[in-house]
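Hi R.,

As promised on Friday, here is the backbone we talked about, encoded as structure tokens. Could you run it through your design pipeline when you get a chance and send me back a sequence?
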């Protein structure tokens, strides 16, 4: 074959020669595995979301209420800490 010509089975460019059939089969396998991988991700994600929803339904305190409680605790702690820092320790609580 001359330089740069294509054949049904091989592609040759100078001394570089590639068989096209294995390349096509490899590309098809990569495409098929990508589709199967995406399907696996979708199925696994759906199962994880369903399990998470069941877990949340079984909680005694809903997550948004728990977050409100924790936020209120954090605000109270911050206020108390800032107040103690600004006003200093009470005279009776100081250790000499």
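Update: got your reply. Pasting your designed sequence below so it's all in one thread:
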């Amino acid at each position: 074959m001359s330089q740069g010509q294509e054949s049904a089975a091989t592609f040759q460019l100078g001394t570089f020669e590639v068989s096209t059939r294995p390349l096509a089969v490899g590309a098809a396998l990569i495409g098929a595995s990508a589709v199967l991988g995406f399907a696996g991700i979708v199925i696994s994600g759906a199962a994880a979301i369903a399990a998470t929803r069941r877990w949340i339904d079984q909680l005694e305190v809903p997550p948004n209420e728990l977050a409100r409680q924790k936020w209120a605790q954090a605000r109270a702690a911050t206020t108390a800490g800032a107040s103690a820092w600004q006003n200093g320790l009470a005279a009776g609580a100081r250790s000499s």
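One thing I noticed while checking it: The first strand starts at residue 10 and ends at 13.

Thanks again,
M.
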